[in-house]
Amino acid sequence: MKYLISLLLCAFTFQTKAQTFKNPDSLFNPAPYGFSHVSSVKTPGEFIYISGQSGGLGKEHFLNPDFRIQVKTALENLKVILNSYQLKPENIMKITILIVDHSPEKLKIWEEEISKVWNGKPFPASTLIPVPKLALDGMLIEVDAIAFKAN
User: Fold this and answer.
1) Alpha helices, H only, the chain
2) Could you say which of 16, 25, 90, 124 is the most buried, measured as most Cβ atoms within 10 Å of its Cβ?
3) Whether the predicted model's global pTM rises above the 0.85 cut
4) Cα 134 to Cα 139: distance, rounded to the nearest angstrom
C-alpha cells in the first residue's frame, strides 16, 4: 500500500533536492497553459526576486509592436537575469504575467513561447493579469518572477 501511495504521488509531483512542483489530481491540468498549480522550496538557499521584465530589446529598450516578439524578448530578458546567478528557467518558482488587452490569441502565444523556454521542465506557479496599460507606451507584456538558488 505504501508503494502504491508513493507511486500515485509521483504521478502528480516533480521534485528536486530543494524544489517541488505539484499539480493535484483533483484540479485541472495546467501544463498546457505553461504553469504548475504550486511550487515550494526547502531552504537553505537564496531567493531571487526579479522585477517585471518587458519585451523591450537591449539597453535602448526597443519595443517591437508585435506581441510575440515582445513575449520572446521578455523571456530572453528573464534568462539574462537568471544567467547572472547561474540559474535556468526551471529555477523560477513563481511567475506573474501582465498582458495589455489580453485575448485568447495572446494567451496562446504566451503558452507557445513559455513552452519553448521551459522545454519539458516543470512550469512555475503562475498568475496572469490582464491590464489596460503598462508603464511605457508600446509595452504589451511584463513578466516578473521569483527564483530559487539552492546552497
Assistant:
1) 2-12, 67-84, 104-118
2) 124
3) no
4) 6
